[in-house]
Amino acid sequence: MYNRAFTPEWITELKSNEIFVFGSNLAGMHAGGAARVAAEQFGAIWGQGIGLQGQSYAIPTMQGGVDTIRPYVDEFIAFAKAHPELTFLVTPIGCGIAGFTADEIAPLFAHAIHTDNILLPESFAKIVNDDYDRFCRSFDHDADRNADNW
Known about the structure:
Oligomer: single chain
């Protein structure tokens, strides 16, 4: 269950150990939305559409459907786990110019709920928590039913 702070709605500055996580395009054309903020304020590199750059981390969201985003989110979560000294502030990636909804993107971050150095936007955290709660309730229900059969 996600039980920590949320990513601030507006990020204008970062502490030295914080990373701004934003949705990008594969070409790294950081011209609008959070990508532009990343380029103008947090060191995103023009022409680099994936990964760590300055105090930002790009997750491509403009190349297709949700399934094309999943591997990049998984790669990001693995990166964050390998760098516990950093705190990653995930913006609502994919929910602006890319045109996805939080209901579509948030479940990609389900594995992030157990990674203390990843902060999610409140909208993502609520969806991930609701999904987690539904899963646990279904598991508990199945376990109770199965216990009767032992």
